[in-house]
Structure formats: structure tokens, C-alpha cells
Write a structure and sequence with these properties.
Blueprint (H helix, E strand, L loop, with lengths): L2 H18 L5 E9 L6 H11 L9 E7 L2 E4 L4 E4 L17 E4 L3 E8 L5
Parallel strand pairs: 1-2
Antiparallel strand pairs: 1-6, 3-4, 3-5
Helix pairs in contact: 1-2
Length: 118
Amino acid sequence: MHELSIATAIVEQAGELAREDGTDAVAAVTVRVGELAGVVPDALTFAFEVARDGTPLASALLVVEQVTAHAYCAPCAEEFAVGMPPFFWCPRCDRPSQDLRSGRELEITAIEPVPAPP
């Protein structure tokens, strides 16, 4: 399960980013995962729960934003979802596309610190 190594990297990177912002207590980490990234969101969430144990992110939640894969057809200027399994033929003009616009993302987009006590 390669999601565990990805989750471990997320925990490490989120911890570093939080420390740079002056905190080490993290409430939530938001990641964008593309449809074609080869990552199973449920497996990543489970792996994150394992990877965060014993770290400053021990109680942090992982929020996964799934990104649909889209391709672009230059001849007819059509952007379309490629689906799973991916199908790169333009539904408008029936030509193949080689321009993948989204769907391979795997990135941290937000880190929410634990609120300071009043």
C-alpha cells in the first residue's frame, strides 16, 4: 500500500509547514488528489491515521478533495472529463487529446492550526 508512504510524507511536510507558521499543533490537513494520481482516497485517509500517530498531527484530520481528470481538445477548444478508466477522445469532434489539464494532482492545499485557547 503506497498510500502509507504518501501519508507519511504528508504528515512530515504538514508538520514542517506548521512549524514555519509558528505552531506545531495541527487540526486538519487538506490535500487535493487527482483521479489519475494512482491514490485511493479511502486508503490514504486510513494510512494518514496510522502515520500521524505519535506526531504533532496525532489528532489532525485529513480532508481529501478529489479532482476530476479533464483533457483539452485544441482543434475544437473543448475541455472534457476523461473518466475512469481514462478515455482521451474528444466527445465533440471524436479526435484524441494529448493535453491533460487536471487529474494528476497530489498536493497539500491547506493546513489548519489548532485554535489557541481563549
